[in-house]
Amino acid sequence: QVQLVESGGGLVQPGGSLRLSCVASGFAVEYYSVGWFRQASGKEREGVACISASDGNAYYPESMKGRFTISRDGATNTVYLQMNGLKPEDTATYYCTAGGVYFAGTYYPDYWGQGTQVAVSS
Question: Which among 71, 85, 99, 105 counts the fewest CB atoms within 10 Å?
Answer without folding.
Answer: 105
